[in-house]
Write a structure and sequence with these properties.
This protein is an alpha+beta fold. It is about 30% helix and about 35% strand. α1 packs across α3.
Length: about 180
Amino acid sequence: MSENSRPEATIRVVESGDTPIVSSIVMEMLADSPLAFGETLPEAQSRTAEEWQELVAQLITRPIRTAFLASDEQGSCGFVCVDSAWAEAPPNTVVVSRLWVAPRQRGTGLGRRLMEVVTEWATQKHAGLLGLGVTEMNTSALEFYEHLGYTDTGMRFPWPPDPSKHIIILGRPLS
């Protein structure tokens, strides 16, 4: 192994006992990307242990939703959630949320691999469309998703912290 190579991260399904790991990675996500996930670090820090357990239980309500966690030799390094019962989504749509890759793993293909796992999960659910929202300011995320075949649906929603800005809804049909 060369000095610049990094061991490949492993990806697994989040389980109910992973509450401490999920709370830690969500805090890391919010510290790294404070405008990307619809909540603030202080909001997440104010959750009680019981509230974290409830959040994890909501994220992994099988068979309609789940979350995936990536880990490398340094610990957790990636996260993504997927939901086939999002009330606001069109029928037969699986919604992807909270995709995040730790800075140490960016550029390694981990984000793409997490999205491949999500796509596989949605395909197994016989979904017709994958959907997700990205703030208009997050141009690198928009480019990443467009590279994966997502297109702008034309739908926009006000971004809660600043309603003059928008969340862009992207979609990708599944065959």
